[in-house]
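Predict the 3D structure for this chain.
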Amino acid sequence: MIGNKTLAVPGPTNMPTRIAQSMNIPLEDHRAPDFPDFVKPLLNDLKKVFKTETGSVLVFPGSGTGGWEAAIRNTLSAGDSVLVSSFGQFSFLWAQMCRELSLDVNCIDQEWGKATPLEEYRRVLTEDRAHKVKAVLVCHNETATGVTSNVAAVRAILNDLNHPALLFVDGVSSIGSIDFKMDEWGVDVAVSGSQKGFMLPTGLAIVGVSEKVNYQIQNVSRRPGDTYLGCGYFDFANMISANESGYFPYTPAATLLRGLRTSVDMLLEEGLDNVFARHTRLANGVRAAVDAWGLKNCAQTPDIFSDTVTAIMVGEGYDANMVIQTAYKKYGVSLGAGLSKVAGKVFRIGHLGWLNETMVLQALGGAELAMRDVGIDFEAGSGLGAAVKLYTQSPQEMAMAAE
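Done. Predicted structure below.
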């Protein structure tokens, strides 16, 4: 293959040269006396990305899956009841982890392509007069189906019912790309990872912890006994205590932290509102292409379309895996595969992180080439043309189109 490969999966995402260069340094002493001068400002600036003033952001060597486990182990005990909905591969896996950790899981199964079922959440929590539900889990952005759920609405339900359950949010493919308001939404634990909106290699679980949870783990008994899960590697209290002095309770991934410093700098330099607007604009171009191809978005209604990933249904009689394999083998374009229930039915285009219009057009062009090769019927160039038209609209034209 001559030329660069095109990475258009929803994670890992493209890594800016600036971030790569910031990590191309000699290994360093993470116990050095000046290490806190680097760590403390980084953790404070991460709070700006999560939009929390009262909470803390903890960084563990690991992945988003480790962040899920951290949320559970630090706040719950075996037998505790949790409310969760499964509407895609990653919301399903988080629910499955809860079962494996011996929680009492009330899982509302949704059709894939729909979002967190707000009315069902309200019903269950209304009926839970004894407040047995200790945590409510929400997958903010379900990467498998390209669906974004309304976290603020879940918090509103909890507040309306005066229900004390903790609110956990999987923001792995949203934080740093889609607006996330940890304090305003009353999120108790927010989980993200380094390889998506933060534009880094995989290797960091980045976890926001509310003031409420921070207080509980510092001041409330850990309920020792057979039901206590134990925090182990992911102990929030140990991490917060060490971070206060600018260090970590064990060897940190210091090289990735240097990259994270640059990532946060880039996000704040662009301005978070501008980051979110860019992602919406790029996503709208992909959605325009899907419409022009005559295909459907796996997400069932526009109000839940994700601004970071679009899952595209190829229709009856076609195999999405053939599109993915052709795009990769023949044109050097990596498209995301359909997972579990939508395997072979969708291919996914990730449009998040370090990305601009021409990079999206590369992915759309590769998808068009592969779809033509496997026999999907559409007008060649129609998707590209629709995206180009959208990207070149004037502000006035965009406002008129939105009306």
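The chain has a mean pLDDT of 95.
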